[in-house]
TrEMBL record:
Residues 4-133 form the Sugar 3,4-ketoisomerase QdtA cupin domain. InterPro entries: QdtA_cupin_dom, RmlC-like_jellyroll, RmlC_Cupin_sf. This is WxcM-like domain-containing protein.
Amino acid sequence: MPRGCELITFAKNQDERGVLIALEGESDEVPFPIERVYYISSVPSGCRRGFHAHEDLEQVLICVCGSVSILVDDGCSQDTVVLSGCDRGLYIGPMVWREMFSFTEGAVLVVLASRHYDAADYLADYNEFKRLVAGAAAEETEE
Ligand code: T46
């Protein structure tokens, strides 16, 4: 898995009535205060979303219905995670390029985010993203 990404399994409260999953901010499951929740649905077949990284934002993605593939790329290595099941979350930290695709019909992707929406936090140019990652790595090596 690329740097800054982690698959998380949530604890289930399951009994004969079904399943209840509770997520709290600043916990093992969601390692930041939750400031925003949004969800993505009704994605047409074959449609790809994302194509950006965030400079600062942390998020946990949960596909509560259906499944979706998520490509994550830290600028050095890439992986594709197939996310399905309401007890599975994908943590994505800052400076990770993401693309979401292969949404199944009726899929719903819920996202917990550490910050309010800020268009200025998006890096939508892949070359610029790679340049910033390489610059940060060079600074780390110098230290
Ligand atoms: C991400 C992936 C997983 C808002 O007004 N408020 C919001 O909180 C968000 C997230 C989006 N928007 C607006 C901005 C655009 O006009 O909704 C529109 C669609 O957003 P976007 O094209 O950025 O959607 P995705 O699916 O490409 O990316 C989204 C998130 O934006 C992004 O942070 O990590 O989901």
